[in-house]
Amino acid sequence: MTNAQSGTPGAYAAAGVDIEAADQAIELMKEWVEKARRPEMLGGLGGFAGLFDASALLRFKRPLLATSTDGVGTKVEIARRMDVHDTIGYDLVGMVVDDLVVCGAEPLFMTDYIATGKVVPEKIAAIVKGIASACVDAGTALVGGETAEHPGLLAPDEYDVAGATTGVVEADDLLGAHLVAEGDVVIAMASSGLHSNGYSLVRHVLLKQGGLDLAEHVDELGRTLGEELLEPTRIYAKACLRVARETGTHAMSHVTGGGLAANLERVMPRELTATVERGTWTPAPVFSLVKRVGDVPQPDIEATLNQGVGMVALTPAADVDRTIALLAEAGVPAWVAGSVSRAGEGDEGRVRLVGQHPGW
């Protein structure tokens, strides 16, 4: 390989960047990227930009474009330590498309960015496999991405991932706080586990403070700790889009960093308050494990972890049964967790968590 500027063979490789390994990674990931296509996607890998046929938007009267970007935080450290890399990409897609869908937007396409200390083709391909698989499940196209080798900045086995997605919603179908009304019902949708938030706390509590090992089988989890911590984020996109289109649901909230109350407050109008009954569900064992091992106060754990609820819908009472049935058809467990009422003094735009989880 020849450096294009100096003509010195292998000069870039001597600096720690392996272009041949990057090319090999592209070859290995092609199969998976090809699966994550939509009819509007033009071209394939290798272009400077991903192309998407925007004439698909002509069916809208007033299309609103929506965009979201995110990463997966320190969950990548668990993947690195376990040397399992085909699920972290699934988390990445879940983080961005489920932020997008809460306003009723359909995710159209996504791009990803992977930075690593050293390109190991099989590892990069595994990450992209997870991204592509999740794009299929979300109904979005993977139109492009970038893999960057950063020797000296990241250790050879370190990496981080980020992504961005773009979607569209008809202006008249936009969901949000402007629609939420007194009497709406809070419908909680189960998370698959921790998803991709709070891992700095989880790692500190379970691995450092508690001295647990990722390879250790934990009876209450029914599997190893590492397997539990790598459980992929549930993708709600298709199920929530169907709910948005087939019911009168007013708003949705993706429960990520900050926990249930803080994220639900983002879609609450000031004149109303939502009351959520903890007694309507029991968080998965991993949440009580973190609480017990770290002696974490309930307010702290609720402000950090999703506590078993990954998405929330605010729906008129007349549409509750239909909404829960649609989610069940999509394999998303859901239940009535609370209600929306007129706000009292000091509760404007607030979410109140009341009661206690069974067994806590």
Largest sheet: 6 strands, mixed
User: What's the N-to-C terminus distance?
Assistant: 61 Å
The class by helix and strand makeup works out as alpha+beta
- Helical content class: 25-40%
Plain-language structure description:
Helix content is 33%, strand content 24%. By secondary structure, it is an alpha+beta fold. It has a six-stranded mixed β-sheet. Strand 8 (217-218) and strand 9 (223-224) form a beta hairpin. Helix 6 crosses helix 10 (285-294). The longest helix is centred in the middle third of the chain and has 18 residues, at 121-138. The chain is globular. Belongs to the AIR synthase family. This is Phosphoribosylformylglycinamidine cyclo-ligase.
Keywords, separated by commas or semicolons:
360 residues, alpha+beta, six-stranded mixed β-sheet, four-stranded mixed β-sheet, 12 helices, globular, disordered N terminus
Secondary structure: elements and pairs:
Blueprint: H1 11-14, H2 19-35, E1 41-42, E2 51-52, E3 63-71, H3 75-82, H4 88-100, E4 106-116, H5 121-138, E5 141-149, E6 159-170, E7 185-190, H6 199-209, E8 217-218, E9 223-224, H7 225-229, H8 237-246, E10 251-254, H9 259-265, E11 272-277, H10 285-294, H11 298-302, E12 309-315, H12 320-329, E13 334-342, E14 351-354
Parallel strand pairs: 4-5, 11-14
Antiparallel strand pairs: 1-2, 3-6, 4-6, 7-12, 7-13, 8-9, 10-12, 11-13
Helix pairs in contact: 2-5, 4-5, 6-10, 8-12
